[in-house]
Amino acid sequence: MLSALHKRRRTFPAGSDLVYQGQVERSAYILVRGWVSSYKLLPRGTRQIVDFQIPGDFLGLRSILFRTADHSIEPVTSIEAIEVLASDLIDAFRESPRVATAVLWAASRDEAMGVEHLIDLGRRDALQRTAHFLLELGARLKLVGLGTVAGYACPLSQYHLADALGLSAVHVNRVLRQLREEGLLTFRSGRVIFDNFDGLVTLAEFDVSYLDQSGPLLK
Amino acid sequence: MLSALHKRRRTFPAGSDLVYQGQVERSAYILVRGWVSSYKLLPRGTRQIVDFQIPGDFLGLRSILFRTADHSIEPVTSIEAIEVLASDLIDAFRESPRVATAVLWAASRDEAMGVEHLIDLGRRDALQRTAHFLLELGARLKLVGLGTVAGYACPLSQYHLADALGLSAVHVNRVLRQLREEGLLTFRSGRVIFDNFDGLVTLAEFDVSYLDQSGPLLK
DNA sequence: CGTCGGGTTGATAACTTTCAAATTTCGTGG
DNA sequence: CCACGAAATTTGAAAGTTATCAACCCGACG
How far apart (Å, rounded) are the C-alpha atoms in residues A85 and A7? Predict the structure, then answer.
């Protein structure tokens, strides 16, 4: 049923907007290749990146269910994505409760990651926060075969990290230096290298259980 | 169909745990009376409150869909709630796509609020953050008839606010004093009073559109 | 070549936490 | 109804973390 939805495959260059804040037209995507950021712009010119999406992730679900997109979606790299029409998705919910349950599970998983992000910003200092965030990205990438315990390819700039972590770009730079100098992690030239994975996990108090790799409860 | 789920009505005193971190048994609730906090405890003894639930809100949805509850739920006040069994809810999804879509809509609305909370922690200073958070609670309470533009009854302690806002309780106290001295808001003896609603909205850059009062798209 | 985005570093300022202590509020038992 | 103790609130001072401002460096690209 999902594959019936796979109608339009589209490519977007880095920087183009898939969904912009306030947009009314509704469609969603499944990301096939590349990275995307979901963010919200604030009146004073700053922005908060809510999450990054990696291949396999669903984009813009909320823009289907809400009448108005409440945040913007922008490719970090050039990407390839499959467009899913709102009407088709809603029909699929009607015809197959299993699909609806699966999508709900995915939404819940996203929310669990959102909670960890919230904790990053609320109760972890810059060092822990950065370590935790990069570890989580690693865990997600590993699930889709794009990362290992050694590291992963990461197209983000330090500005991206700053806007995701609620820090200034300058401070992100200092934190990355500290992580590097302590032999924990190297963030350089498009790669994240875990120099000391266990040390990082300890520092970040990282616990993968919230990612719940067991999948949706369909039976 | 939802009313068929309304089987067990239960009362919990303030402080008892409805769902605790790591719990395996699965059940969810619809809150009828009182306030509840969803939070996560961190290794170093601190905690982050993810959200407060008010009457009409769904509790513990995630603990149904995931095998393990990834956070704890604790009443702020004595509460009354209707227990919903996981199996019943999942059956309801099967039998009625409309129910599934509605629950998905509710989950998306919660996520939209989560995004604003994330922005509070990531990109707003303590004053803006506190104002924004209390305004959002007011907007939610107004929807269920428990608040007006004048204010609302609020059972939270300054510690609750601190753990929700990612601040120390001491600093919350100072921020509340500043809001009071600037004639914007009074937080005292279980009430939030908007002394200058428009001024608060301006300060907090508050925009209600993300609450999307139009409801789920069922047609 | 020259420009530009990204990265790096130092100095200073702003914000928030921590620690410590006083004061007030509130529920409970006498 | 009052006294008491616990919890919540309030305030001050000092310390710590992060932002801001201002340069400078570097490699990619037209």
Answer: 9
The CATH code of the domain at B126-218 is 1.10.10.10
- Read off the pLDDT of residues B90-125 as tens digits, 9 standing for 90 and up: 778 777 777 777 777 777 778 788 999 999 999 999
A94 contact residues in B (CB cutoff 8 A): 97
Instruction: Give the model's confidence band at B218: pLDDT under 50 very low, under 70 low, under 90 confident, else very high.
Output: very low
**Confidence at residue A178, expressed as pLDDT on a 0 to 100 scale:** 96
Chain A interface disruption, residue of B26, B27, B70, most A CBs within 10 A = B70
Q: Do B122 and A90 touch (CB under 8 A)?
A: no
Closest CA to B20 of B50, B60, B53, B51: B60
Whole-number distance in Å between A170 CA and D25 C1': 15
pLDDT single digits (tens) A121-150: 999 999 999 999 999 999 999 989 999 999
Q: Assess contact for A135 and A204: CB atoms under 8 A.
A: yes
pLDDT above 50 (res B219) = no
The whole-chain average pLDDT of chain A stands at 85
How far off is chain B from A190, nearest CA to CA, in Å?
25
Please tell me the least confidently modeled range out of A40-44, A152-156, A208-212, B154-158. Answer: A208-212
- What pLDDT was estimated at residue B46? 92
The pTM is what? 0.89
A44 CA to D10 C1', in Å?
33
What residue type is assigned to position A59 of the chain? L
CATH topology match: A2-95 vs A126-218: no
Q: Give domain limits for chain A.
A: 2-95, 126-218
Give A22 or A88, the one with higher predicted confidence.
A88
For the domain A2-95, what is the CATH code? 2.60.120.10
Cβ A217–B61 below 8 Å, yes or no? no
> Is the Cβ pair A217, B94 closer than 8 Å?
no
Nucleotides of C under 7 A from a protein CB: 5-11, 15-20, 25-26
